[in-house]
Give the backbone structure.
Amino acid sequence: MKNNSRKVISNQLKRNTKLLYRLKKNYQNDFTPIISKSTLKVYEQIKNYYKQEVPIILDNGCGTGSSSLWLAKQNPNTAVFGIDHTNKFTSTYPYKNIIFAQVEISQLWRLLWEKKIHIFKAYLLYPNPWPKSKHLTKRWHAHPAFKYLTCIADSLEIRTNWEIYALEARDSLEFMTGNKTVLSKFYPKTSISLHEDKYMRSGHDLFKLMSSKKRSVRLTII
């Protein structure tokens, strides 16, 4: 099968020199978006599962939802929420433990943090790398809401096909949590998403970050 995906092309050849400045600013400042009705609706669904002590998996930026389907199949005793700002989810799915929702992700992270709802595991699978240096703040690990995700997720996994993104994300995770983050190059036996399958067939290097809570995270916003 022919390659069908170009590797990430960027004018940024190493970790962005402004990353630490951005992380410090994000850490010190609160992020208070206006919460939409759609976000509130998803929050209520998550809260109901949380009250029933059902482990919650959050598949952030799930796209069509292929990764969410994989997670639901592998984790039948959990509630898998596939969330994205667009509504392009698959219309057929055979698993009862999956919920798709169109939502502004940063709003949801903030609300879950505010209401002290914890997520069993969260995923960021091949997020848009925003490869231009000037677009640093558009990358999730440099977004002001990212600190909330590090608080609510007991375990967080990020996958990317751009090494610089992986290195920056590791720096951000360790800055926000104070915990060691495991970064590795890997080649999955089975692709977890359509993007992963495409990158594998195109011969890209793939990187995985794993961060789990070992102690309380640093964030203490009043």
Summary: Residues 37-51 form the longest helix (15 residues). The radius of gyration is 17 Å. DSSP finds seven helices and seven strands in the chain. The longest strand covers residues 206-212.
